């Protein structure tokens, strides 16, 4: 039932993608804003309490409804699974930005590509060249695919899968909503949300990196993962982008960030040598966007194949 639930949810999403501003997501966003306003008194333990209020308030009802559906009929539980996977997946939610950037770069319209990238990432894209636009688009695409697809897959396979999938997506959202806004960057309130999501995403992130390595350039992916993942300040992002970049044969991320840290810590650092030790691969180009799409689809097919084999083994 798990395999069929994911398969049907993916098919439905291909036909009718769920918008990022849909009413359900907006309600969750409003709830997060209200809880932050109610609980935020400047301490980390307040953030922990607020996190549990939201996560428990959404996952427990999901689990209860799933249990009721199982009691009523397996078909009711199957329908509930499809609905939850459809709501938590985001395979097509941001793909229109990626596709628009790809088409704009292919036609030579760099201004349009910068505009689409700015709308998607909320970054200042003024003055970005084609290589930088391509690199950032690929990076955001790989990270978004992991957090909106592969991470959901992993947690949906756990016991009481629908509740676990909701927990993952809510935890992922809170880790950003309570740390990334300008007024929250120096607050302790979001520390717990960041720490707990790190552990929630610890296994899924590594499985995503393995999938990229298997369906891409395996040797370069593993080499980049082992040697360059720690050059990102965010460990999970470093693992996914280093493995994904190695699988694509493209340099992703900004490893110079780590070089600056090394330079600050060491008394004698040769900057030229640090630049020579940059991640292997070529500079990102518009073709890298198409390669990234192929990598993601192959990784998705790998996940589905493994899930099918697992389902068959359980049935037998």
UniProtKB/TrEMBL annotation:
Cell compartment(s), UniProt: Cell membrane
GO biological process: cobalamin biosynthetic process
Membrane association type: Multi-pass membrane protein
Gene Ontology MF annotations: ABC-type vitamin B12 transporter activity; threonine-phosphate decarboxylase activity
Top-level taxon: Bacteria
Pathway(s) of this molecule: Cofactor biosynthesis; adenosylcobalamin biosynthesis
Purpose: Converts cobyric acid to cobinamide by the addition of aminopropanol on the F carboxylic group.
Family assignment from sequence similarity: Belongs to the CobD/CbiB family.
Protein name: Cobalamin biosynthesis protein CobD
Organism in which the protein naturally occurs: Undibacterium terreum
Organism phylogeny: Bacteria, Pseudomonadati, Pseudomonadota, Betaproteobacteria, Burkholderiales
Gene name of this polypeptide: cobD
